[in-house]
């Protein structure tokens, strides 16, 4: 295929024409759908430039202009009236044949849309770009017996009966929006209804639509929606602006959710929940519509991420950050997504444990964003970084404080309501509202890669000063060989020998003494602004050599290397007042231990587990004062992918062997403590979704996972007891995962039992697929191949693909098998998927993107698959982009 033209930010040009109003008419049919559009058009400047409309897979029936040119991607109108005019177009489309799930398509007998980023052009001819904002009216007519519910954006203005058994509905959205926020749903649906009264007294009707049998599973989703609406009013002063808010759950959906104005469309997995069928992670994902990492070994963390692939922030929060103020072009995507993900993170933190949520978010950043930053798909926060984009927004809050950040948000909405704007506009609002200077902060939006920061410290007992020297470097990335120093806020505290924070009053930096006191009172933590390649900060009046607690709360998305000794890290693990850094100290120790043992195994040395590490985890496990979910996180080892990511040449086999060994030895050394943990955290009470209950289950289940690694008959019986006696999906699935670690009859029997029990619940079956796909059992690729033929699997359903294929790619030891079997399997699947759903296929092929990080044998296998994909006729642009960039570097 011809290489598609790559578009750059510098190519952006304002449109020659804008649209004021858009009237759409849909006649939904079983064989075809007729779409009429009536658009009020006005020129940006008077002239003779043609109007070019985007269109894909459309049959043009009529256009109210005699002079036009039509090709496979555009409808061009060269001769147009002067001034404002009305454009009328009628197209014919075929939703029943649309397997890409973009535009208008059929799913489980219902009509549904997905228009972000460029799906609207598959509905009608249009300027399909986010800076074209217009007011929409939508008329829908369909057979009432087949499609009794007809939904679109805005408020319902009219509805009624038509001849021939048909009916109609008319919707009007009074606010301007880009076409990617248009939505339509029609089908056999029922709703859970509720009311939310906002601060101004407006009664907002809330409805969550699902197939009739699933309505009982929407109670938690309704609770989450109302909680989000209340939180947005309390924290940001933002009220919902229409009389109606609809959510629709659909089983076939490429995304996690879509924030269409007033008609959010959600992947079913992010709406439906009951204690029997949904885990704590599912409930948390629905609350935040973002994956929550819970863990049994490394398996459950990856399963929950796989099952919330492409996860999005709470879609309701997009009403203001994305809908009322949207992005000018797709290079500004992080403006709405990064900001909304951050708002969701704050909401979820307020609903549960802030520390645990922060740990989960940082784990996601490290597992997904950092590897991308170091590979051929590296890009700046702009154009499309959700997670790292949220970290950039968080840095504003770290620098300005909560009140300063709120002032910046208020100014942002005041300046830009109903506008399509840029990242620079958000930066300017934060700066101007606080009269602040951020030096080179905007580099976060334009410079790719993860900054690497080294810190060295020195204590002068005579002068009672403590200095910190920072050195930063941003590695080269494709297209950006030379980097400038970044603006890095480093939150820190200094601990004395008793573990208490030392009071701080001033710091000497850049030739001057700067006060860090607040209202002339010393502080116990501060934020340093590191903006140069090399900088030094000197604290005075420090009575003893302190142990620095650096990057508290993970105040910047960087890789940090310090000169802290292991003894210092164990001290921080035991005493740091910043709980995130307590967890981080343990993770640094674990990473160092694992890398050391990997080196030993590569040199055929005997592997010995440091007893101090065992003691450190025993202390955490036995500390009853700590939050139980924090303890569960703290005793969880870094994943295999995270360790491979920091190796010069990734060695999946060695890393897997080391991690398995450490887990088994920890389970052996801590067996009594782990057994006590399981016993003390059981509960026969009715399921509750709250932090204490979730924390108890998380700790019990990580303990069970460790014990399950020992392959002991007594412990197998324990896991079977937990499986059989479980009263909720969280506990049952955790026990299943513990039992599934070891090949054999028990594993086979319990997997069969689980499927037989839940075979009629497709969301639970997806968990079952993912658990088997991610198994570390040798040669698991053949098991996964067999599951492709399972009657419950469907390659056309994105959730099933993410569960089975995505799950398999999340098993380093099998996906990266040295014989290339994992790579061959994925290569075959990508080509099959590309014919059905290019968007999902492109996500799968990205698993090849870092093939150069492995040994020569694995490189050759992976490269062969990428070359095979690239040589295939009719390859989609989506897959071509990922595969070509992966080969080019």
TrEMBL record:
Pfam family, one: Peptidase_M1_N
Domain annotation Peptidase M1 alanyl aminopeptidase C-terminal: ranges: 566-888
Keyword terms, alphabetized: Aminopeptidase, Hydrolase, Metal-binding, Metalloprotease, Protease, Zinc
GO annotation, biological process: proteolysis
GO terms of molecular function: aminopeptidase activity; metallopeptidase activity; zinc ion binding
Superkingdom of the organism of origin: Eukaryota
Residue ranges of every copy of the Peptidase M1 alanyl aminopeptidase Ig-like fold domain listed in the record: 449-562
Segments forming domain Peptidase M1 membrane alanine aminopeptidase: 222-293, 316-441
Zinc among keywords: yes
GO CC, alphabetical: chloroplast
InterPro entries from the UniProt entry: Aminopeptidase_N-like_N (IPR045357), Aminopeptidase_N-like_N_sf (IPR042097), PepN_Ig-like_sf (IPR038438), Peptidase_M1_dom (IPR014782), Peptidase_M1_pepN (IPR012779), Peptidase_M1_pepN_C (IPR024601), Peptidase_M1_pepN_C_sf (IPR037144), Peptidase_M1_pepN_Ig-like (IPR035414)
Cofactor: Zn(2+)
Domain Aminopeptidase N-like N-terminal: 65-181
PANTHER family: PUROMYCIN-SENSITIVE AMINOPEPTIDASE
Family of the protein in this entry: Belongs to the peptidase M1 family.
Protein name as it appears in the record: Peptidase M1, alanine aminopeptidase/leukotriene A4 hydrolase
Organism for this UniProt entry: Trema orientale
């Amino acid at each position: 295929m011809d290489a598609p033209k790559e578009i750059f930010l510098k190519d952006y040009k304002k449109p020659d024409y804008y649209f004021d109003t858009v009237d759409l008419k849909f006649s939904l049919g079983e064989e075809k759908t007729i779409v009429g559009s009536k658009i009020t058009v006005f020129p940006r400047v008077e002239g003779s430039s043609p109007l070019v409309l985007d269109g894909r897979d459309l049959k043009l029936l009529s256009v109210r202009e005699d002079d036009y040119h039509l090709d496979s991607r555009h409808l061009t109108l060269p001769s147009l009236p002067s001034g404002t005019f009305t454009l009328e177009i009628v197209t014919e489309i075929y939703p029943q044949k649309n397997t890409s799930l973009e535009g208008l398509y059929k799913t489980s007998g219902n009509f549904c849309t997905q228009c972000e980023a460029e799906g609207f052009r598959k509905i009608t001819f249009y300027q399909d770009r986010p800076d074209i904002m217009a007011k929409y009216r939508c008329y829908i007519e369909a057979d009432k017996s087949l499609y009794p519910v007809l939904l679109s954006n805005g408020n319902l203005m009219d509805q009624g009966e038509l001849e021939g058994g048909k009916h109609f509905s008319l919707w009007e959205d009074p606010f301007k929006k880009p076409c990617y926020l248009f939505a339509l749903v029609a089908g056999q649906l029922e709703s859970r209804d509720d009311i939310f009264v906002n601060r101004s007294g407006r009664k907002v009707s809330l409805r969550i639509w699902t197939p009739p049998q699933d309505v009982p599973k929407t109670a938690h989703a309704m609770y989450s929606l109302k909680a989000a609406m209340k939180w947005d009013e309390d924290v940001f002063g933002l009220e919902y602006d229409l009389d109606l808010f609809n959510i629709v759950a659909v089983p076939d959906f490429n995304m996690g959710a879509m924030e269409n104005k007033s008609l959010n469309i959600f992947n079913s997995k992010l709406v439906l929940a009951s204690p029997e069928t949904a885990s704590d992670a599912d409930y948390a994902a629905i609350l935040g519509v973002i994956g929550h990492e819970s863990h049994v070994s490394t398996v459950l963390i990856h399963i929950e991420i796989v099952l919330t692939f492409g996860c999005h922030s709470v879609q309701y929060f997009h009403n203001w950050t994305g809908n009322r103020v949207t992005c000018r072009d797709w290079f500004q995507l992080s403006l709405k997504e990064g900001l909304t993900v951050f708002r969701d993170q704050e909401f979820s933190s307020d609903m549960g444990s802030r520390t645990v949520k922060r740990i989960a978010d940082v784990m996601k950043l490290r597992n997904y964003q950092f590897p991308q930053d170091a590979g051929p798909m590296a890009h700046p926060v702009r154009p499309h970084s959700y997670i790292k984009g949220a970290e950039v927004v968080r840095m504003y809050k770290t620098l300005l404080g909560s009140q300063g950040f709120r002032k910046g948000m208020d100014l942002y909405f005041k300046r830009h309501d109903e506008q399509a704007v840029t990242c620079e506009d958000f930066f300017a609002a934060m700066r101007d509202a606080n009269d602040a200077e951020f030096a080179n902060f905007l580099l976060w939006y334009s410079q790719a890669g993860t900054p690497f920061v080294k810190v060295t410290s020195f204590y002068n007992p005579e002068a009672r000063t403590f200095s910190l020297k920072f050195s930063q470097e941003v590695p080269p990335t494709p297209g950006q060989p030379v980097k400038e120093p970044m603006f890095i806020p480093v939150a820190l505290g200094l601990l004395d020998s008793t573990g208490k924070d030392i009071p701080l009053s001033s710091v000497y930096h850049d030739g001057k003494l700067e006060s860090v006191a607040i209202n002339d009172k010393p502080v116990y933590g501060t934020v340093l602004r590191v903006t140069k390649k090399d900088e030094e900060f000197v604290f005075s009046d420090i009575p003893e050599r302190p142990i620095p607690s650096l990057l508290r709360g993970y105040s910047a998305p960087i890789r940090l290397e310090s000169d802290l000794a292991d003894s210092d890290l164990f001290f921080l693990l035991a005493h740091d007042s910043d709980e995130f850094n307590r967890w981080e100290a343990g993770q640094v120790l674990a990473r160092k231990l694992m890398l050391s043992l990997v080196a030993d195994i590569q040199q055929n040395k005997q592997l010995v587990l440091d007893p101090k590490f065992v003691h450190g985890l025993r202390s955490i496990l036995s500390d009853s004062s700590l939050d139980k979910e924090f303890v569960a996180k703290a005793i969880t080892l870094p994943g295999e992918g995270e360790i491979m990511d920091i190796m010069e040449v990734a060695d999946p086999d060695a890393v897997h062997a080391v991690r398995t060994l450490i887990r088994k030895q920890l389970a052996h050394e801590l067996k009594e403590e782990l057994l006590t943990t399981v016993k003390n955290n059981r509960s026969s009470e009715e399921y509750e979704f709250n932090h204490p209950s979730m924390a108890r289950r998380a700790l019990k289940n990580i303990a069970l996972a460790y014990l399950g690694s020992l392959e002991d008959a007594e412990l197998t019986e324990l896991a079977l007891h937990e499986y059989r006696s479980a009263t909720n999906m969280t506990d049952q699935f955790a026990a299943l995962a513990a039992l599934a670690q070891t090949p054999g009859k028990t594993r086979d029997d319990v997997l069969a039992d689980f499927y037989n029990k839940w075979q009629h619940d497709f969301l639970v079956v997806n968990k079952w697929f993912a658990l088997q796909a991610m198994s570390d059992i040798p040669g698991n690729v053949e098991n996964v191949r067999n599951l492709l033929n399972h009657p419950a699997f469907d390659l056309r359903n994105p959730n099933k693909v993410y569960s089975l294929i995505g799950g398999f790619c999340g098993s380093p030891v099998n996906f990266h098998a040295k014989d290339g079997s994992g790579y061959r399997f994925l290569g075959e699947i990508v080509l099959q998927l590309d014919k059905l759903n290019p968007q999902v296929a492109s996500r799968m092929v990205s698993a090849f993107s870092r093939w150069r990080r492995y040994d020569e044998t694995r490189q050759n296998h992976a490269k062969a698959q990428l070359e095979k994909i690239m040589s295939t006729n009719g390859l989609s642009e989506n897959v071509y982009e990922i595969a070509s960039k992966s080969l080019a570097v």
